[in-house]
User: What shape does this take?
Amino acid sequence: GKRMNKNNTNDNASIDSIIREAASRRKVLLNFSKTYPAFLILFVSLVISIVIYFYLKDRVDQDNQKAFDKAVNSVMTRLERKHQTNVEIIQQLQGVYKSLTLVVKDFFDLYASVPANTYPSIMSIAYTPLITPENKDDREFDMQRTGILNFKVYPKGLRNNYFPIFYIVPQQKNFHLFGKDLAYYPIVRKAIEKSRDSNKIVSTPVFDIRGNDTLGFYLIAPVYNKDSAIHSIDLRKKNFMGVVIVESNIHKFFEEALSTNRIASDTSILFFGIEETLTNKIYYHSSNYELSKLEYDKLEQTQVLKIADKTFLIKFATIPEFGSGLQQALPLISLILSVIISFSFFGFVLSVITSRARAVDLAERMTRSQRRIVEMSNDIISVLDLEGNCKSMNPASKLLFGLEPLELIGKNISELLVNSDDIKLFLNKVNQSSDIVNDRIDVLMKGNENQNVWVNWNLNISIQDGLIYTIGRDVTLEKKAEEEERLKTKQIQLAEQFTKEASEFKSYFMTKLSHQLRNSLTGIIGYLQLISQKIYESEEEHDLFIQLAEQSSEEL
Assistant: This one.
C-alpha cells in the first residue's frame, strides 16, 4: 500500500508538472530557431509579391506608352499629310509657271480656285512678282487694265524692290489684298529671299498675317523665267520672277487635318503647338487642353512637325486616368492580394510549426514523466522477447533481485527462476496466444541476498510485436501469509480472501492506471490545446475548458 501510494504521488507530480509547464513554454516554442522556416517563406513570398507588382506595373506602363505613342503618331501622320497636300498645291502652281512663258490672271485663277475653295484652312493662293522702283508704275497700270481699277502697291514708300500681290483667289474675299506689298513685312521678305536663293519651298513663322489676330503662315515657292539657268545663287537672283504663295490659317490647318479620319484616341490625349519663333506662345491647342492645368501623373512627348524649312513643335500629354482604370489598378491589386496570401500562408505554416513543436515538447515531457514513474516503481517493469530474453528492465531489479538492469539485458528470464522449468509457464502462454493475450503467473525466483521471492507476473503478449510486456510484483509476503493461514481455516480463508482482493485490486489498479493516465492526459491536452489555439466561442466556454482540465488533473 505504501509503495502504491508513493508511485501515485510521483505520477501525479510528474503529470501536473507537464501541464503547468506546457503553457509557460509556449513563448519559448515561438523562438526564431524553431519558426525561421515560416519567416523565410514570408520573406520569399513578399519578395515575389514585389517582383510581380513591378513586373505588372512595367507592363502597364509599356502598354500605356504604346497606346500614347500610337495616338501621337496618328495625329502627326494626319498633320504631315495635310502639309503634304499644301506642298502638292503649291508645286502644281509652280509647275504652271515653269511650263508657260506668261501666266495671265485668268489662267492662274483657273488653277488656284479649286484648291483654294476646297480647303477652308487655305485663306488665299496668290502670285507675287518682283517689282523694282523703276517699273512700279508700269506694272500698276498693267493690273488696272486687267480690271483691278484701284490697283496700287501699298503700303506706300520707297523700297529697293516690291512683292505686291497681283493674282489672288478667292478674289471676292481677298479683293482688298490686291497690291499688298509683302516685302514691307520683314518676316515675309526674308522668307521670299530665302526661297529665291535656295530654289526651295519655304515657310514663314506663324504670325498675325492679316493684322486682326489671325495666326497663320505663308508657304512660298520661287518662280523663275522659263528655261532659265538657276544652278547658282547669282543666276537665281538674275532670273527670279516672283513667288507663288499659299496662305494658311494655322488653327484651321490643324482642325482640317485632324477632322479627317478622326479616331477615338484623339480624346485620350491633349496637345498644343508652338512655333519656334513664338516661344511660350501657343498657336493651337486641342479642345481638352484645360485638363493640362490639373495636377496628375501624365506621359509627355514633344514631336517636330516640319513645314517646309520651319520647325513646329507639337507637345503631347495624356489626359487624367489615361488607359483602363482596372488596368492601372492591377499592379496594386496584385500586390495587396499577394501580401494577404503571403501573410495567410505564413500564419498557417507558423501555426503548423508551433503546434507540432508543442506536441513534440509535450510528448517528450510525458515520456520523461513516464520514465521517472518506471524508474521509481518498486515493481519489475520489463520487456521480454518471445523466448524469454530480457530486452529492458527498470531499476526495481536491484531491489528485488540484487542485479542492475544492465546486468539483466540480454539474459534469459530462466536464469532467475528457482525452478528453471517454470520458464515453460511463460512460453506456454506465448504458444497459446493468437495475437495479444493478458495473463498472470506466480513463480519462485532468486531474490536479493540469496533469498527466494515469489513474483507475480502480469504478462501482455503481442505476437505481432514479437514481445512480452511484463510487470512483476513481489508477492512473497502474500505467499507466506497463505502458508500461515492454512493453520487456521478461518484465518486461511480470510487470508485467501484478502490476498485475492489485494491481488485483484492491485491488478485492477495497474490495468486501469495506464488507461486512466491516457484518458485523463488526453482530455487535459485536448482542453489545453483548445484554449491555446483559442478554439472557443465565449468566455464561458473558455472557463469550462479550464474547469474540465482542472477536474481531470485532480482526478489524476
About this structure: The radius of gyration is 57 Å.
